[in-house]
Amino acid sequence: MGAQIISAAIYWYLKEEGREVFADLSYFDGEERIATVGNKGEVSHWSWQLDPFDLSRSSFEAAAPYSRRDVELIEDGPQKLMLGVKALRQPWVQNRLPIAGVPAGVLPADFANGYLCAHVRRGDYVNVASHLVSDREFFELAGKFAGLMKHLVVVSDSPIEEAFRKRISEGYEQVAFLDDVDAYTSHCVMRTARILVCSNSQFSLIAALLNPQALVVLPKQWFGAKDRAIEAPIHEACGFQILRPNE
Predict the structure, then answer these.
(1) Which pLDDT band, with edges at 50, 70 and 90, does 45 fall under?
(2) From CA 217, how far away is CA 160, in angstroms rounded?
């Protein structure tokens, strides 16, 4: 969903600039396939996930009349991320991706008064990620905000182990763990958070950009050494950094 929202935002942004823009939707001709966690290099193949925003494939003009030799193709990398961040910071783009809030019954009623949400990206991401935000980093950040916030929500795409649950809950009156909800529900929870602690994933990044009211904490490192240049657009959108405790 994160990658699809970034691509949609870029499409709208460039069209608004008067560019002739088409969407390459050939990826969605393949069947959905969920990768097995632990199989290094194996990635999931996702289906179309923008229907909750009333966006179907027909909402975008496809690139069928053109071959790749005739166009400037925006592939994954620094240019695409830069355009995506710029597009998703535009209020008119944000308005095209509305949510109605957290679906009923997902969180206890008290959480409506505000909560910290931590997104722990794991799942098939561990098969391909060149860098992962560690459990310890989530514990340290959650601990710093305990006392400021009464409620904590932990969103993950993998089952959350008991030891993790116990450690991150320290200092909070109520904690909700969401590791078995769909992507759109997770997205709504992250976009409604008062404080959002992100992992190094596109899914986290788009929720942060679409939640301008939140205090957002982004990782300083997103990729391994050979891919660090891709991070530049993210760092340019940030201000303060968080001081680490002594090692």
Answers:
(1) confident
(2) 21
Model-wide pTM > 0.90: no
Domains of the chain, earliest start first: 2-94 (no CATH), 109-236 (3.40.50.2000)
Q: Rounded mean pLDDT of 62-78?
A: 75
Question: pLDDT value at position 106?
Answer: 97
| Concatenated DSSP letters of the chain | -HHHHHHHHHHHHHHHTT----B--GGGGSPPBPPPTT-TT---B-----GGGT--GGGS-B-TT--TTSS----TTHHHHHHHHHHHTSHHHHTTS---SSPTTSS-GGGGG--EEEEE--GGGGGT-S----HHHHHHHHHHHBTTBSEEEEEESSPPPHHHHHHHTTT-SEEEEESSS-HHHHHHHHHH-SEEE--SSHHHHHHHHT-TTSEEE--S--S-GGGGGGGHHHHHT-----PPPP-
> Do the beta carbons of residue 204 and residue 159 sit within 8 Å?
no
- The residue to which tokens 């460039």 are assigned: 14
Cβ(145)–Cβ(175) below 8 Å = no
